[in-house]
Design goal:
With 202 residues, the protein is mainly α. It contains ten helices and no strands. The longest helix has 25 residues.
Length: 202
């Protein structure tokens, strides 16, 4: 398009890479988070990854238009397929570590466990391992569709997977650090803490 032609010309003339415009499209996609993830990639990879992500979102939007509010087995099969295609295309541009780092940076899971968690700060490797564990439970269909969004969601199976994931995280972090991280990322605890801060309750 015109933006890419302009940027290519400027690079040829002065040897400088211009930043791409922010991603735009429908609501429901994590545009800001994905923009930031793309910015972390090597400059020569960014444009192609951006194209792949935009094409994926277009396919996802078309699938959702067709399915409406239905998230049945046929939808999940098609959803897995477009996510597999996205992963395959990304693998032609990025190495496996870069693909995982890009997906992590685009995911709300990594956001939730980054930074200072009640005095606990995860190492990069711990964060990556924790992301892998939580992704299997929260986003089992390949993209960011949540497990309980499926029409035939099995709550008993989900509860079992949650327990297994908790044990894996506990083994990864140790009992004490796990307890702090579990508390700090619990939505109810966060609400209580926010109310305490609002009303200056110690």
């Amino acid at each position: 398009d015109l933006e890419r032609e302009r940027n290519a010309l400027i690079k040829e003339l002065v040897g400088a890479d211009l930043p791409l415009s922010p991603l735009h499209g429908r609501t429901g996609h994590s545009y800001e988070r994905t923009d930031q993830a793309i910015d972390r990639l090597p400059p020569d990879k960014r444009e192609r990854v951006r194209e792949i992500q935009e094409a994926y979102w277009t396919a996802e939007d078309e699938l959702n238009d067709t399915a409406g509010n239905t998230r049945n087995a046929a939808y999940l099969k098609a959803y897995r397929k477009i996510n597999q295609e996205r992963a395959q295309l990304l693998s032609t541009v990025l190495n496996p570590d870069q693909v995982e780092a890009f997906d992590m940076a685009s995911s709300p899971i990594a956001d939730r466990f980054s930074g200072d968690l009640g005095g606990v700060r995860l190492t990069d490797q711990e964060l990556r391992e924790l992301y892998r564990i939580r992704r299997e439970v929260e986003h089992p269909y390949g993209g960011l569709l949540e497990a309980d969004d499926a029409d035939e969601h099995d709550s008993d199976q989900q509860a079992r997977m949650e327990r297994e994931a908790s044990e894996k995280v506990k083994a990864l972090l140790g009992e004490d650090r796990y307890a702090v991280v579990a508390r700090e990322t619990d939505p109810t605890w966060q609400q209580v803490r926010q109310l305490g801060e609002r009303f200056e309750i110690p």
